[in-house]
Amino acid sequence: MNNAIAAADRGYTGRKRRGTLAQVLFRLRKSPLAMFGLIFIVCLTFVAIFADVLAPYPYQKQNLVHSFETPTKQFLLGTDEFGRDILSRLIYGARISLQVGIIAVGIALIVGGMLGAVAGYYGGWTDNAIMRVMDVLLSIPQTLLAIAIAAALGPGLFNLMIAVGISAVPNYARIVRGSVLSIREMEFVEAARAVGSSDLRIILKHIIPNSMAPIIVQSTLGVASAILNAAGLSFIGLGIQPPYPEWGAMLSGGRQYIRDYAHLTLYPGLAIMLTILALNFLGDGLRDALDPKLKR
Amino acid sequence: MTEIQGKFNPESALLLDVRDLTIQYVTDNGTVHAVENLNLQLGRGETLGVVGETGAGKTTTALGIMRLIPSPPGVVRAGEILFEGEDLLKKSEPEMRAIRGGKIAMIFQDPMTSLNPVMTVDRQIAEMISLHRSVSDSEALTLAGDMLELVGIKRERMHDYPHQFSGGMKQRVVIAIALACDPGLLIADEPTTALDVTIQAQVLELMKKLKQQFNASMILITHDLGIVADICDHVAIMYAGRVVEYAEKRALYSRPLHPYTIGLFNSVPDLDEDREELAVIPGLMPDPMDLPTGCTFHPRCTFAAEECSKKKPDVLEVEPGHFVACPIRAGLGLGKPATGGERK
């Protein structure tokens, strides 16, 4: 043991490999779909951040002379019923949709994940108490639950995220609990206990990292459904208030004109679809890239 | 039952003294008597081999000492586990966490599953170190590399994941983790069962060497009498949750007394002997939910007398340090070892 300490004093380190992030990126590069997803999401984030510079018109600027215009040089993606530029609204909408999607999933993941991990790890009545509450929440349709929460909290971007997030909590709790249940029986968890790790440490450092695969996949899918859910809430007036553009709100706003002016719903729909697709590709690729068991 | 206490090796201070430990698993289908009135002593620097069939309660004993019995259904009904003079059963959970790993470390049976698959091995060793010593993360990682070198793994491999190692190397990593904080007691639960024979020998050699280097005591759980002969000082033979014979290694190998011990020895193939078939102990391990009355071994015992089914056998000291829970065999006198029981 003294040798060991002496070596530590000499400051010996054998590290020469690249860091974890670089390694993950390196492995991600091998999957073209995942790279497409990553690039799309990075671009979209960029667009969302610099919306003020990139958008050709302000999102709320009405131009009734040009209402319902199909794509032209002046309005690249056409205009809506008030003559607002759809491209500009999509660009600004990216801000809201991305924020809502990611933050709502973040809330759901943290709350649901912790609840699920605790339920799965401790089992017994803790498990029963938590999961029965989750079952009650699950028995209410997610959108309805979100409506109830949003109605209680009042409209607004932040409340929208909370409402969508909380309504998704039971899904994450179930998934995390499921994988925790199978992993806590593994011998390395017992070994971790035998070296004196606390329960919290075991959950955070040993169990959660081993159950990342289903969590990542569910989260990327979850961003998609969170965007849709937020759209639903905006549609009934509980979410984003007009004239602020949100993809879902644009989609539902254009719904009544879908027979004559399909581009009102087409472009927001495409935006949602592509974002969700990109997130799913990225999630799939990430799941593989984060798994150390795969050959480099 | 308790006369073993204190009699054995009185001059050396005992590191571990397990007294009358009784552990049960209470399930809906009945109570499993996993460990009953178990007594074990271990001096500093000594190695105790715990031998017995699957289900004899060896692992439960080990987990009991670590206070890691899954509860429910496990319950420690009675007994004391004195480690360095203090009863582990009376310790609080935070105190136990400091002892686990810091003072008592455990090596698990299967190295394939006892390492976290998504954590590099240096981090797993460093986790042990940083839990029990006040060192920075980078110091802990450096020390982890030193531990790896100590068990014969190149430092360059420290950032690798467990799946990149072979079975024997993984067990070396597990040993490195166990010894990282210089524990006084090492509990090895069948450390070589999952390894092939050549690797077994290497790993045992390594454990023997490091045990001496770190001056640790060791409890080696195994069902391989050859391993016991190789590294243990004392041997406890367990059957159905009880220690049926406890002796210094030489005494046990030269003169096994308990019928079960004799049966175990007879079932080991011998190079010098020309035998068509190995002797087996008739019958099966009893159902631990429904143990036979009296001596738990009597239904399978060739020496059984009528009283065996009625009275639980007392533990008798037939010679200094040699205890056996069989009045009949203990009373047979010293000059008559059973057939086939003779071993060098």
CATH class membership of the domain at 1-91 and 233-344 in chain B: Alpha Beta
List the helices and strands of chain B in order. EEEHEEHEHHHEHEHEEHHEEH
Instruction: Decide which structural class fits the backbone of chain B.
Output: alpha/beta
Largest sheet of chain B: 8 strands, mixed
Number of strands of chain A: 0
Q: Number of DSSP helices of chain A? A: 13
Fraction in helix of chain B: 25-40%
Instruction: Determine and state the CATH class of chain A.
Output: Mainly Alpha
CATH topology call of the domain at 1-91 and 233-344 in chain B:
Rossmann fold
CATH superfamily of the domain at 1-91 and 233-344 in chain B: P-loop containing nucleotide triphosphate hydrolases
The ordered string of helix (H) and strand (E) elements of chain A is HHHHHHHHHHHHH
Mean pLDDT of chain B: 83
* Apparent shape of chain B: globular
**Oligomeric composition of the shown chains:** heterodimer
Biggest chain contact: A-B, 34 and 46 residues
Level-2 CATH architecture of the domain at 1-91 and 233-344 in chain B:
3-Layer(aba) Sandwich
Give the termini separation of chain A.
35 Å
Radius of gyration of chain B: 21 Å
Short description:
Chain A is mostly helical and 296 residues long. In chain A, 71% of the residues lie in helices and 0% in strands. Chain A is built from 13 helices and no strands.
What does this structure look like?
- The complex is a heterodimer of chains A (296) and B (344).
- Helix content of chain A is 71%, strand content 0%.
- In chain A, helix 7 (142-153) packs across helix 8 (157-183) and helix 8 (157-183) packs antiparallel against helix 11.
- Chain A has a single domain, classed as MetI-like (MetI-like fold).
- With 296 residues, chain A is an all-alpha fold.
- Chain A contains 13 helices and no strands.
- The longest helix of chain A has 37 residues, at 86-122.
- By secondary structure, chain B is an alpha/beta fold.
- Chain B has a domain at 1-91 and 233-344: Rossmann fold.
- Chain B is built from 10 helices and 12 strands.
- Chain B has helices at residues 58-66, 93-99, 121-132, 137-150, 167-179, 197-214, 225-231, 249-254, 259-266, 327-330, and strands at 14-27, 30-43, 47-51, 74-83, 86-87, 104-107, 185-189, 217-222, 234-239, 242-248, 316-319, 322-324.
- In chain B, helix 3 (121-132) packs across helix 4, helix 3 (121-132) runs parallel beside helix 5 (167-179) and helix 5 (167-179) packs parallel to helix 6 (197-214).
- Chain B is globular, with a radius of gyration of 21 Å.
- Chains A and B meet through helix 1, helix 9 and helix 10 of A and helix 2, helix 3 and helix 4 of B.
